[in-house]
Amino acid sequence: MTKNDVMQQLAAMGSEGTKKVLAKHGYREPFFGVKVGDMKTILKKVKKDNALALELYSTGNADAMYMAALIADENKITKKDLNTWAKQAYCPNLSEFIVAQLTAETPHAVELALKWIDDKAENVAASGWSTLSNYLSITPDNEIDVALIEKLLTRVQNDINASSNRVRYAMNAFVICVGSYLPVLNKQAKVIAKSISGITVNMGDTAYKLPDALAYINKVEVAGKLGAKRKMARC
Questions:
Q1: What gap in Å lies between CA 97 and CA 131, rounded to an integer?
Q2: What pLDDT digit, counting tens, does each position of 124-139 carry?
Q3: Where do the structural domains in the chain lie, given as residue ranges?
């Protein structure tokens, strides 16, 4: 499929109702208003096409940008391209979800995440923390630098209150993922989760609420899923 083929299909899948919902989540024109589930019908046809992904992302159309990250090849996309994508991912659905999920699947995950969490731009910093969260969810424990993750937990505890809105959200999610996916740091994550329980995040005009980190980790434990990894980050 060509870029024009995909854009035509995305346009046909868009709806005003979905546009209104996505606008509340930070989407801005141009975008069609396409549900992710509908995008996956295109994904089944295209599978992975890194060249096409780069073309789609460069359109600046939010639906095409999301589609691009779905079809990007984690073994072919470069650090340069991922840096560009992170800077251009202007809303949480892009920065904290699909771009971070893609980055977590690449060999550059930790390197880029550590760079991004120090970025002054809120969307980039939030994407960095989300990349780390997704990385923990799919990486075997014996491949994770536990000492590094422990230092980052302490950083969250020290810095979360002074951090920007979406970075606070992503930091909270990071604590949840440490406690849920890395059993060796489960107890420490729960201590920090309890210490940050008073943070607030402005979720805008959406139905989303900030998850309580400690309650979430405890729920994972009760379900017997502590340490259970996912096959892939993108979904």
A1: 8
A2: 999 999 999 999 999 9
A3: 1-73, 91-235
